[in-house]
Design a protein that fits this description.
This protein is an alpha+beta fold. The chain folds into three domains: 39 residues; 41 residues; 31 residues. The chain contains four helices and five strands. A five-stranded antiparallel sheet has the order 4-3-2-1-5, with no helix packed on it. The termini are far apart. The mean pLDDT is 79.
Length: 139
């Protein structure tokens, strides 16, 4: 017979089948884990992912989806979520919806008012004159 040393199905199909030797279960899991980590690293790099700072209770935040301020009460049970006290209710929000509002001291208020004065000027007069800087107490 013509197909003595191969299987009958291979003889009918007129081609040889390749049988793959798979690695052991442990090495396969290691390869899958390495592939997952590589995929995660590439995704994070592509989408500029970064870790956000954790918030402590009492921190004043701006809630982007509600467009209002609030104070963090505590961390919620779900990952990256916080319980926030707003003027209307206590809500749970993900860290991505919360922006830290820095404490404004007297010195920074003065700087902020100065920058507002400069920014309200026409484009051609953005730089303060010497006399204006002396009046505002700037050097």
């Amino acid at each position: 017979m013509l197909c003595d040393n191969v299987q009958f199905s291979q003889c009918l199909a007129r081609r040889t089948y390749w049988t793959h030797c798979f690695d052991t279960h442990c090495t396969l899991k290691e390869k899958e884990e390495a592939s997952r980590m590589n995929q995660k690293r590439n995704f994070d790099k592509r989408h500029k992912v970064h870790e956000m700072k954790t918030l402590s209770s009492g921190t004043t935040v701006f809630i982007t989806d509600m467009k209002c301020r609030g104070k963090v009460i505590q961390r919620a049970n779900t990952p990256r979520s916080y319980m926030v006290d707003t003027p209307t209710a206590v809500v749970r929000r993900n860290r991505s919806h919360l922006r830290i509002i820095p404490d404004i001291s007297a010195n920074s208020q003065k700087e902020q008012s100065t920058t507002m004065l400069v920014n309200n000027r026409p484009h051609r007069i953005k730089k303060l004159s010497l006399k204006a800087r002396e009046n505002l107490g700037l050097k």
